[in-house]
Amino acid sequence: MTRNPLILVFLTLALVLTGCGNRSIGNKIDDQFLEPKVLSRIQDANPDLAAPTSRVVVTAYNGVILLAGQTPRAELRDQAEQAARLVVGVKKVHNELQIQQPASALARSNDSLLTTRIKSSMLVTSGVPSSHIKVVTENGIVYLMGIVTRAQANQATAVAQNVSGVQRIVRLFQYTD
């Protein structure tokens, strides 16, 4: 029986990368499948949540769901949260949907740039476990998610605060201490 060296390299790399974070491969895979399930449930809850008048961004980290974006009415915001809570595997929902028109393409582009700049700054800052932190930016608001100590959360927040263009930071960490 011959083994493909490429498969062995891939498996080794996967094991090494798993050791870099504090979540198992199973948790990471669960989160990847959870995001589209939650978004689908939200869009099924009300057609207005799937319409161009709403922008719902779903992010999962260790079963914790962040709902970000914009919707035109408060009842839609509430319906989105209720729908997300009904999905199997969801541990907690942070509903940060804003009641307003969806962000422009320019704002979304700026958000992507902000996220990249924050992640890059975290990578070069000692004491910030960037592999344990997910950065999501929506309409200039930066959401920080992850499983960290309080000191690491404070360091990550300080890094994000020093990036020009950040309007507000929302910490959604799970603390290990």
TrEMBL record:
<protein>
    <submittedName>
        <fullName>Osmotically-inducible protein OsmY, contains BON domain</fullName>
    </submittedName>
</protein>
<dbReference type="InterPro" id="IPR007055">
    <property type="entry name" value="BON_dom"/>
</dbReference>
<keyword id="KW-0732">Signal</keyword>
<feature type="domain" description="BON">
    <location>
        <begin position="110"/>
        <end position="177"/>
    </location>
</feature>
<dbReference type="InterPro" id="IPR014004">
    <property type="entry name" value="Transpt-assoc_nodulatn_dom_bac"/>
</dbReference>
<dbReference type="Pfam" id="PF04972">
    <property type="entry name" value="BON"/>
</dbReference>
<feature type="domain" description="BON">
    <location>
        <begin position="30"/>
        <end position="101"/>
    </location>
</feature>
<dbReference type="InterPro" id="IPR051686">
    <property type="entry name" value="Lipoprotein_DolP"/>
</dbReference>
